[in-house]
Specification:
Elements (H helix, E strand, L loop, with lengths): L4 E9 L3 E6 L2 E6 L11 E5 L2 E6 L1 H22 L1
Antiparallel strand pairs: 1-2, 1-4, 2-3, 4-5
């Protein structure tokens, strides 16, 4: 299964690259597919590429749902 997740752009780098934060974890990704990107924008990332910008509120809702699913999965493993 593949999963695309929201991330916040924390730093723009040369060569159409950026650093994003995914729930506090930093990752370097390609932003070649997105125009007019700025620090603090939220993007949907998949396999190291930003696919599109996303509304910050929608990003927060999605991240919260992922946290809830993770917590439920942790409880089921016990």
């Amino acid at each position: 299964m593949c999963l695309a997740i929201p991330a916040e752009v924390t730093k723009l780098l040369p060569d159409e690259m950026a650093i994003v934060s995914i729930d506090g974890v930093s990752k370097e990704i390609s932003v070649a597919l997105i125009e007019n990107l700025a620090v603090s924008d939220y993007v949907i990332i998949h396999v190291g590429y930003a696919l599109t910008k996303i509304d910050p509120e929608e990003a927060m809702r999605t991240l919260e749902l992922l946290r809830e699913l993770s917590a439920e999965g942790q409880g089921a493993a016990s």
